[in-house]
Amino acid sequence: MMTSVDAELIRVLGDPLRLQIVTLLARETLCTTHLVEETGAKQTNLSNHLRVLREAGVVETEPCGRFTYYRLRPDAIEQLAGRFAALAQTARLTAEANLKRSCP
After folding, report:
1. pTM for the whole structure
2. 60/42 Cα distance (integer angstroms)
């Protein structure tokens, strides 16, 4: 069963720019400057999206001099993927058993 934490994570990842950021961070740890270059987003907009991702536990930060690097937290993505995998398995078993509720 999906929890409110799962629903929040789905909402967070549902934004196209945040999903693009997560995809980029899956490949390498990047600073804001790199992310601005890669996405074409304005720095303030990007910073707001990074804050949302950080608060949701999807990314973590690493200070490096005057820059902040962002790294994807794979466990957050794996947890959500596990929920979807379980949901898919339940749907598969339901379809195989041809389970359906009769109408009144």
Report:
1. 0.82
2. 21
